[in-house]
Amino acid sequence: MALMISSPSVTLAIFVTVLLGLCTASFGSRGGRSIVGAWTDIGHVEANEEVQELGRYSVEEYNKEERASRRNDVVVGEKVGFAKVVEAKKQVVSGIKYCLKIWGTTRNGGYEMFDSVVVVKPWLHNSKQLLSFSTSRAAKHEQSSRAAEQVQVR
């Protein structure tokens, strides 16, 4: 048996098989196909009811968490109101993870961009979990850039 494995033809066959496997995997990841576990863009999000519903869910869950954390504080109205999801990506993990950019209203009547990450497990009835919700990093960068421009103008 040891002689069979160490023969040059078997070694060459194993080498060629491994090489072909690697080349196929490399080609598949570049040919416009998605890589397993990679984030993929979701198109036409404003018309996609499932994505818009996930955005609403994200805002509702965030507001619930905010209410729970400030039990004795008296605050009128919700911290964030849902306007619409403007950008979305998804990733297949143990379920489907969605990364959403949500345009929302703030308590002072302004608008702000928020980042949300939600995991949905479709095989479990109505299983959604909000993993994170925060002011969008891009929006924070844009606001600080505008503030810097205003300081330079004065």
Protein topology:
Layout: H1 2-5, H2 8-30, E1 40-41, H3 49-69, E2 80-93, E3 95-106, E4 111-120, E5 128-135, H4 137-153
Antiparallel strand pairs: 1-2, 2-3, 3-4, 4-5
Description of the molecule:
The chain is elongated and about 75 Å long. The C terminus is likely disordered. It has 2 domains: 33 residues; 114 residues, Nuclear Transport Factor 2, Chain: A (Roll). By secondary structure, it is α+β, with helices and mostly antiparallel strands. It is built from 4 helices and 5 strands; from the N terminus they run H-H-E-H-E-E-E-E-H. A 5-stranded antiparallel beta sheet has the order 1-2-3-4-5.
Entry keywords:
154 residues; alpha+beta; Nuclear Transport Factor 2, Chain: A; five-stranded antiparallel beta sheet; 4 helices; 30% strand; Cysteine proteinase inhibitor B; Cystatin_sf
What class, by secondary structure content?
Answer: alpha+beta
**Which radius of gyration do the C-alpha atoms yield?**
24 Å
How many alpha or pi helices? Answer: 4
**Which topology of the largest domain does CATH recognise?**
Nuclear Transport Factor 2, Chain: A
Contiguous runs where pLDDT drops below 50 for at least 5 residues: 19-30, 144-154
Question: What is the total tally of β strands?
Answer: 5
The helix/strand series, from N terminus to C terminus, equals: HHEHEEEEH
In percent, how helical is the residue content? 40-55%
Structurally, the number of domains stands at 2
Highest-level CATH class of the largest domain:
Alpha Beta
